[in-house]
Amino acid sequence: MKKIVTPITDEAINQIAVNDMVYLSGYIYTGRDAVLPKVLELIESNGLKEAGIDLQGSVIFHTAVSPAGVGPTSSNKLEIESSIPVLSKAGVKLHLGKGELSSKTIEELEKYNSVYAVIPPVTALLESKTLERKVVAFPELGMEALHLLKVDGFPAIIAAAHGKSLY
């Protein structure tokens, strides 16, 4: 069991491998189909800083945030999986969701020393590990807005790292 605290360093990424069980703590961003393309637009327009978003060493959890809690969505949806290389290049170190990624995406993760972890759909457990939440961008998207969560002990399994995949 490895503990990872955000912001995540390259050294921390270098210490994890496929099949490692990790516990995430610190602040993580959330995003899925509706918001990730908007975040990519902010990256392209150099608007992250103005929006108060710092992706260096960050985690993006592929989820929406609702009163019932948080749970992973499929990371291999077009809008989500296609965002992974750009977000990795922009500083995201760990992408958190569910499902198999393409070999091309796994190569891109390797290129930017980022990893992908899967999390079981256990909404109640994750809600109990969520200490704080706030909307940081695109509030008009409701539960699919970009949120910033403070978590403690989020469990996950590394599914793609260093050019290798669990799948």
Q: What is the number of strand segments?
A: 10
The CATH topology, please? fumarase
**What is the typical, i.e. mean, pLDDT?**
93
* Annotated CATH architecture: Alpha-Beta Barrel
Report the uncertain regions: none
Instruction: State the shape.
Output: globular
Radius of gyration: 14 Å
Short descriptors:
5-stranded mixed β-barrel; fumarase; 167 residues; alpha/beta; globular; two-stranded antiparallel ribbon
Topology record:
Layout: E1 2-5, H1 10-14, E2 21-30, H2 36-44, H3 48-51, E3 58-61, E4 65-66, E5 69-70, H4 78-81, H5 83-89, E6 92-97, H6 103-111, E7 115-118, H7 123-128, E8 130-137, E9 146-161, E10 164-165
Parallel strand pairs: 1-2, 2-3, 3-6, 6-7
Antiparallel strand pairs: 2-9, 4-5, 7-9, 8-9, 9-10
Task: Give an account of the 3D structure.
39% of the residues are buried. This protein starts with a strand and ends with a strand. It has a five-stranded mixed barrel. It has 167 residues and is α/β, with parallel strands linked by helices. It has helices spanning 10-14, 36-44, 48-51, 78-81, 83-89, 103-111, 123-128; strands at residues 2-5, 21-30, 58-61, 65-66, 69-70, 92-97, 115-118, 130-137, 146-161, 164-165. The chain has seven helices and ten strands. The chain has one domain (2-161): fumarase, CATH 3.20.130.
